[in-house]
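Quick start: read one record
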Amino acid sequence: MGHGGMDMPSDGAKCNMNMLFTWDTTSLCIVFPQWRVSSTITLIISLLGVILLTAGYEFVREMSRRYETSSAEYVNKLPRKNVDDAEKKQKLIKAVFYAVQVFYSFFIMLLFMTYNGWVMLSVAVGAFVGYLAFGDSSSTKSVACH
């Protein structure tokens, strides 16, 4: 069953769900039926939103790396008897960062899977801007969905 051109209801209007690459923004809904592109202005606002969301992912990644570095230094300075509790707390916080990153990356994947060229370019621009703004660490970490 093909899914190209599938329509989904949204407050009486239709969302165009493409399963093939397109530059067309007619009836474009981004992730949610409420996030609907209905004019040039809403397209520009949406694309700027996608850029900010994607840049925000780079911010979360950088905060995670900074936390790992600072918490490792903190644990190394602790007396041996306090290390186990600090490591448990550290692991819990690192797990929260990881969960946020996984959720965020899957959301970005959904943005990309609109198959709309403008949205795809905005994801790439957001990654670029985010790395410039927040990428103080190495870029060797993979850019996978999780």
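The helical segments are 40-77, 83-112, 117-134.
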